[in-house]
Amino acid sequence: MRRGERIQLGVDVGGTSTRAVMVDAAGRCLGLGVSSAGNPTSAGPERAADAIVAAVGAAAAAASRDVKDADRLVAAIAGAGGTPGVRLREALVAAGLTIPVVYRADLLGMYCSGALAADGYAMVAGTGAVASSVRGGELAALRDGLGWLLGDDGSGYWIGRRVVRAAIGAMDGRLPETSLAAALLDRLGIAAGDDVTEYGQSRALRQAVDALYSLRPVELAGFAPLAFDAARAGDEVAVHIVEAAGEALARTLHGVLEPGVDGPLVLGGSVLSRQPDVAGRVVAAFRDRGFAGDVVIVTDGTLGAAVLALREAGIDPDSEMFERMRTTLAALRDA
Amino acid sequence: MRRGERIQLGVDVGGTSTRAVMVDAAGRCLGLGVSSAGNPTSAGPERAADAIVAAVGAAAAAASRDVKDADRLVAAIAGAGGTPGVRLREALVAAGLTIPVVYRADLLGMYCSGALAADGYAMVAGTGAVASSVRGGELAALRDGLGWLLGDDGSGYWIGRRVVRAAIGAMDGRLPETSLAAALLDRLGIAAGDDVTEYGQSRALRQAVDALYSLRPVELAGFAPLAFDAARAGDEVAVHIVEAAGEALARTLHGVLEPGVDGPLVLGGSVLSRQPDVAGRVVAAFRDRGFAGDVVIVTDGTLGAAVLALREAGIDPDSEMFERMRTTLAALRDA
Questions:
Q1: Parallel, antiparallel, or unpaired: how do β-strands A129-135 and A70-77 relate?
Q2: With contact defined as beta carbons under 8 Å apart, do B88 and B73 qualify?
């Protein structure tokens, strides 16, 4: 390590993958490392710790540095409050991490990937869905984020669940016909056919039901793309699901609107970052309520984790530094 | 056993309890036995077998007979097709049952508790929801019954899930206010209050979310009664849930309507047998489609299991014998 150089580690810890970036005091992203799921609630503290250590190790190696060259590690992470956070901290030490670790909300990491403004709004709709206002650089008023069974209205799970229920209901002759039925069978690798079981329900329906019950419920989120594809092709049932998702997300976002907060709106998660129709609907509804700020769409919280790491080190990136962080991180991603 | 006396055992095997009745060739119910859950899918084959053996043992004891005095055992049961049925059969033998066992559909047992007619309709809405036409004394065309995740539209689970999501969404400030929120907290034993957690969501909300995620999903069916109570008190959100349940059940029932079948409609399960508003809505919608038969509401499938057991023995109960079965079973229940 060069004398006097100050290095930070920002880590965007996700339920699917974990991304670590090493950044210097000038905002240069020096190395990027990616590993597996690091959420301590779903992956467990040991696997989460292993994923985080693997990602920061890869980031340091890519930067030709050592992990312990960094002042600290700032993790943008969900589910690290209370006991899971304590267990994760112990598991990180057990996995050989010696630098201090600071947890920040993953939603705040997402916000800081898109905006430096102290006040604004953040919304993520991926497998789950959550929104918050941001005041003074901190999450202020959270809405939803309450999980597949009780909340996550408009999320990938919410959409995927409706896709499979609409498809199954159509195959069962209870609900309107929809191209989602054929699309679901195709995705499951089940041949459509007229074969019926003893009580008149089709064999394909029974096979689809068995296949879907063999999944964990949250995996139904994987069927959300079927709705987007079918809606684009004009399927009315799919159009209704996608529109309803947009309305549900808009309701959640309305819940965090505060008169004094007119900063940017940062949108993330696959449902918002990859589906312009849904994002457009949510933004239009928010503007109808009086929101007049900029809208930024981000694909993950890696850049924001680096911003949070710099701030933790007493370095407050300005727009010039932010742009340097963005371009150097993009170069690492492309490498 | 008196020489020449022919005895049968009918068993209504349920996901909550199991009821066995011993019946003689004249249709006299001689003994009733009740035990725990006997569904082989949810309880496992060993526990299911134990429950069935306990129920038939109690029924035989109440009749001052022996289980092996019966020609056979006819079980009205769900989920006993394929491997689970084979495993249950093995477990019944291992538990000491020596008489032949015949499986019939639980929905058919429910139908036969209310009607002797060879043709008709059966619908059950308890934790789950399923409907079928009946032709020649057998289930003909089944609809739904596809479980909490993929189907069971309008069932107790379907209603209970909407109750908790509406209550949680209202507490989260995303969905309309409803008395279901206070009712849910009361049911969970959580004090309502203005305490908030770090991101502005109330402590009561977080406690409710934690409590609900500690349940198995299907247990959300237990919150369905909150909707009925709140709807009667005029809560708009609850009224909408109950109305939508009626519409969903009506759709399922419409799916089994057959021009040639004009026999009775037998309704069972707590949502239909205890909620006259829901049952009334479903029946009115069915009549709008052309159904002109009688409607019978039954509380369980015990009487029907006895009917099926007698038929299996070559005895076809007429209306006089059916009435004798009904009154002697009622006397055993009251004893």
A1: unpaired
A2: no
Q: How far is CA B266 from the centre of its chain?
A: 12
DSSP character at residue B289:
T
Q: Which helix (H) or strand (E) holds A142?
A: strand A138-144
State pLDDT tens for residues B47-81: 999 999 999 999 999 999 999 999 999 999 987 87
Residue with tokens 């239009």: A284
The whole-model pTM stands at 0.90
Q: Pick A132's closest partner by Cβ from B173, B199, B251.
A: B199
Helix/strand/coil for A202: strand
Instruction: Give CA–CA dist B250/B230, Å, rounded.
Output: 22
- Alpha-helical regions (H) of chain B: 40-43, 45-62, 82-94, 106-114, 147-150, 156-171, 180-188, 203-213, 224-232, 236-254, 270-273, 276-288, 302-312, 319-334
ipTM: 0.88
Closest Cα in chain A, distance from residue B173 (Å): 6
Give the type of residue at A160. Answer: G
Judge contact between A97 and A67, C-beta under 8 A. Answer: yes
In this complex, the residue of B140, B143, B209 whose CB is nearest that of residue A150 is: B209
| C-beta atoms surrounding B196 within 10 Å | 14
